Structures are given as structure tokens and as C-alpha cells.
Amino acid sequence: MAPQAEAQNWRLEPTFGSIALRSGFVPDPHRHRVIAGGDNHFLGSEDCRFGGWFASPPDYRLIYEAGRFPTLTLTVDAPGDTMLLVNDPHSRWYCNDDHDGRNPLIRFANPPTGQYDIWVGTYNRSNVRNAVIYISER
User: Which superkingdom heads the taxonomic lineage of this protein's source (predicted)?
Assistant: First the structure.
């Protein structure tokens, strides 16, 4: 779990939209394109110890209704080095960098119902990248 991300404001409207998904959603994974990066530096998590650059508003918002599946996984695919920062329904912050090569992944066991705000950052400030967020219960 990451410390609170001071520059990220989950109250702002997400830049690239939102989705409401109920457990058992299809297609799985759900995919959504965003632009990674921003002007705010985040540092202070074991899983993101070198920090990254994120926007202030969320990139994407998931309203999730939990159900029969025991996990919820968020991952990013991008051509460069990206990071993933998530504020969960209990206002806990999670960050991941380089889970699989340069792609981040955050997996929630027994995910709670509610709002997940998602930011996709870049390792270098100047490397704004096209990225795809994947949301899966598999």
C-alpha cells in the first residue's frame, strides 16, 4: 500500500472517463485507452520507490460492484515505462511499477464494492505515453 498521494485529487472528474462494472462483466478484460504521465511527482511507496509522474485528476474511474469473483486486477500495457496508482473505495492508496517488465499491476483480493480511481504515470516526466488499462477478474 502506498502513502497518500498528495497531488492526486480523486474528487476531480477523470480525464479519460469512467465505467461501472458488475462482477462477472464481459468482455473480461475490460480495456480503456489513456495517456500516461503528468506534471505531479509521486514518491514514497515500496512498490514505487523511484517515483513517477502523474496527472492531478484521475485518468479513469471504475465503479465496481463486487460479487462472485475473488480478485480484481488492474494492469497497464504501454510502449514505455509506466506506473499504476489506485485509490480504492476505502481511500487506501496502492502503487506499482514494473510488475512484468515495464508494465505495472495491482491485484485486489476480495475487492470491495465502490469507486476505484486510477492514474497511469510515467517514470520520466517527459515521456507521455499512449497506454491501455486492463481491468479483469481472471
Answer: Bacteria
The three cell numbers of residue 115 are: 469507486
Q: In whole angstroms, how far apart are CA 37 and each of 5, 106, 113, 120?
A: 15, 18, 27, 6
Q: What pLDDT is attached to residue 47?
A: 65
- Cell digits of residue 108: 485486489
* pLDDT at site 94: 92
Separation CA 77–CA 24 (nearest Å):
22
Domain containing residue 38: CATH number: 2.60.120.380
Q: Count the domains in the chain.
A: 1
Q: What is d(CA 66, CA 24) in angstroms, rounded to the nearest whole number?
A: 9
Per-residue pLDDT for 93 more than 80?
Answer: yes
Asked if residue 117 belongs to a domain, the reply is yes
pTM score, whole prediction? 0.91
Q: Is residue 9 part of a domain?
A: no
